[in-house]
Amino acid sequence: MSETTLDRPEIVTFDVPYSAYGQLRNEGYNVQQASFGAPYEVPQSDGLLPVIPNSFLPENLIEQDILLVDLNPQDFRSSAEGGKVVSDAELDVWASCYRGFIDPRPRACDFAASQMNRVLEGGGALVIFAAPSLPQKQFIGRGRGYYPLESYQLREKSPYPRNCWSFSNISTTLEVKPSKGRDLIIKDSQRDSLQFLLERYAAKSQFECTIQPPPSLKGYWQILATNRFDECVGAMIHDEEHPGLILVLPQVGDKSGFLSELMKDVLLELKPKLFPESEKGRWLEHPEYEAIVISKLKREIEQVQREAENRIEKLWEQVDTERDKVQHHYDLLTETGDSLVTSVKKCLEELGFEQVVDVDENVDATESERREDLQILDEEPFLIAEVKGIAGIPRDEDALAVGKYLVPRLKQWKPKDVQGLSVINHQRNIPALDREFPFRDLVEDNARDQSIGLLSTWELFKLLRGFHMWGWDKKSLKPLFYRTGIIEGIPEHYAHVGTVERYMEKEGKRIVGIRIKAELNRTDRIAFALPTEFYEQDIQSLQIQNRDIETATADDIVGTITELTREQAKEGLRIFKVRGS
Questions:
Q1: What are phi and psi of 272, to 5 degrees?
Q2: What is the C-alpha to C-alpha distance for residues 298 and 9, in angstroms, rounded to an integer?
Q3: 258: CB partners within 8 A, 6+ apart
Q4: Are strands 547-548 and 543-544 parallel, antiparallel or unpaired?
Q5: CA atoms of 433 and 566, how far apart (whole Å)
Q6: Over 287-305, what HEC string results?
Q7: In terms of DSSP bridges, do strands 125-129 and 242-249 run parallel, antiparallel, or are they unpaired?
Q8: pLDDT in tens, 358-378
Q9: This prediction's pTM
Q10: CA torsion, points 338, 343, 348, 351, in degrees to nearest 10?
């Protein structure tokens, strides 16, 4: 944490994540927290309830220099906190309960608006992380009796003309429409520092709404970012004749880092008078005063930045090219039908199979009978494969569907031996790590009885990752596909040797404790079965109770050094000996 705190600028964060507030405070800024409040849950009904504020605002809000506002609600509270602000006989703000929540923020924004306007009129800055107001019908009126009130029971009822953007005269006039996405196109802001900052954080940002100014702001409105339809999702409202500065920005992923750089690189440049302690002597750094040697170094820095940007652009082009080459890997986890069949065929060929036949592409035009999807004819037993992509868990008949093609193929190819292979992309609409195990124990027994292998595309995907990451020999992968029952994506040269028992950090080293299932030597290489891939490493040492050993046997608990983190090396994680390494 910074040992000194700058008196100015004075900064207030409204509902900005605590981590971002803490970052600014650690860097020595004079910053305090505030909140317009949080939505709270109410029983869903057609009635009206009074709006109960849960905001907290600084007493000296009018004296602040920079206002940072995040309009994306962090959480919904389970109930209102406190009671009605005024008596039943007085005018109050009421909200409809038809959505099961009440958003008290418009009321707090309205209350703070006059003070925040004064901050802008005095040359302050307002930074808004934009999000649309929550859909909520609110009213002004007088009500008495039991709550919730029916609409007709609210006397002198009129719409409450405020929302979550009503904290300044200018923000109130903006037309904000809900629209969500991640494709941000950063525009030339004529402010290199602001443009570069937005470009650096664009990949981890998203927009929640589009923003349009009223005609009165057209001359002061500068678009900073748009979506792919050229609709504004970020803008700057600033003019030399008007003292205040407003930045309306999309939702930045890393607000801590972004706001730190915004202060040092952008606001210091745009509003130097807000940073009197930082501005002292800064004019000496302007080009007309800068030392020649430093000017040369700055030009070199600019050249390096341009070269880096060009290199990055080429790398992204390479990423796109390589992604196209391995698209069939991704399709294993999302596709169904012919697209999935084609992807499985390409992956099998990638793993070393040379005679993989797409039956639909080679079937006789006169043949109307339904056939299996793929045939793998490299060696006996020949494999016939049925490939399915489904939204849920496979039924037993889905998993064993290939069985109905086995007898016809055995007769046709006699005396050749034939086995079945069922390849299933289950729960294909959700991330693979969130999916359930696809096969029941009873299905596995039936599959073995019918000479059928059961393989999920997730296991096939992990095999491909390991093959490319560790350069596995194809000869250790092909035999997997000839197994019956459930096929796990573990290569033949892996032998289960133990599980993680504990994890510790000692003298700067990460140590994993392994409960041994089979013999393990100090010269062996091991692999940890992480959720998406295997991590291989050579054993650097083996110890039992701080004593070096050469060989561990079943039921020993041994320690060895690893590069894995505590989060990765969880208790129960399986460990394999890499044979032939």
A1: -60, -30
A2: 28
A3: 20, 197, 201, 252
A4: antiparallel
A5: 19
A6: CCCCCHHHHHHHHHHHHHH
A7: parallel
A8: 998 876 544 556 689 999 999
A9: 0.56
A10: 170
